[in-house]
Amino acid sequence: xxxxxxxxxxxxxxxxxxxxxxxxxxxxxxxxxxxxxxxxxxxxxxxxxxxxxxxxxxxxxxxxxxxxxxxxxxxxxxxxxxxxxxxxxxxxxxxxxxxxxxxxxxxxxxxxxxxxxxxxxxxxxxxxxxxxxxxxxxxxxxxxxxxxxxxxxxxxxxxxxxxxxxxxxxxxxxxxxxxxxxxxxxxxxxxxxxxxxxxxxxxxxxxxxxxxxxxxxxxxxxxxxxxxxxxxxxxxxxxxxxxxxxxxxxxxxxxxxxxxxxxxxxxxxxxxxxxxxxxxxxxxxxxxxxxxxxxxxxxxxxxxxxxxxxxxxxxxxxxxxxxxxxxxxxxxxxxxxxxxxxxxxxxxxxxxxxxxxxxxxxxxxxxxxxxxxxxxxxxxxxxxxxxxxxxxxxxxxxxxxxxxx
Length: 405
Fold this sequence. Notes:
By secondary structure, the chain is of the alpha+beta class. It has twelve helices and 13 strands. It folds into three domains: 2-55; 56-179; 186-404, Orthogonal Bundle (MetI-like fold), CATH 1.10.3720. The radius of gyration is 36 Å and the shape is elongated. The chain starts with a helix and ends with a helix.
């Protein structure tokens, strides 16, 4: 009975893990595909079915031929061997013996001759039609055949013995590939497509907005939580009510204000209006309320000022709330698109942020999916890293707020 119970528990645990791994893979697959595509060669991005592991075609040096030649698998007898492609666009025809049309032969048109000569080429009735005959020589044997169709072949040679040659369709040939990565995609998309300046602008704006919101939210939250002044509660309710105003309603008056100040097409318009946040002030106020008043009263008796109490008592105790606010603010500032699109001119590349540059890159490099994915990876990686590093504080904040509430 005990062994049966252990088996049942093991199967239940294994089943639960299998389900969790399956759904985790479904959630992570888009990110894995994006990162793998950002490291692929351009031709590898259009392969079907798509592959997660980046691969590129193997090349080799062939004696008697200039440069590196791509390798393909060529059918030599019944065996597939890696052969180098040395010549393309060889015009060829598909020929068949009129007496045995099921067996076809693909042969270069330059190696066939009209049966009976060009002036008096022989014909034969084939499929109810008068068809010309061609002399096709295969392994020293010349046979009159009819041409069924025309195609294009490539000439493949053995890299170690170029005298061994095979003609076959290049498009239908399987390339010899090896796993590889192309980190130069990131340097290309940053240097050549101007994402380096946009990345710098986005980083500076994000740091400024996060720092500004933390300072104003801490000061405002402490004032509304601990200081007593006339109209404090009414002011807090009005300030908190601004959260309910949709952003689309604020766009026009905010844009007119930027025009009046002269901040249109400047980075200041992406920083100053967003360092004040009702949500951050509300979050910090609610957290400061949970700190016992006795600690603050003891500090006041010892002669500490309000700023000293805030800096040495409240802020160290508010690390989880600060980390939560910083994470949310970072994600908003880093991924902001609509307001930069409105306030920053499209032609002003020097003041572009990352989201604007990615929008331009999507159209500019539409045929280079690897570069687009590299740009997307650059935009996605910093928020992911910040969230992973701040996750512990975020969970701690949610847990502590639930206990103290």
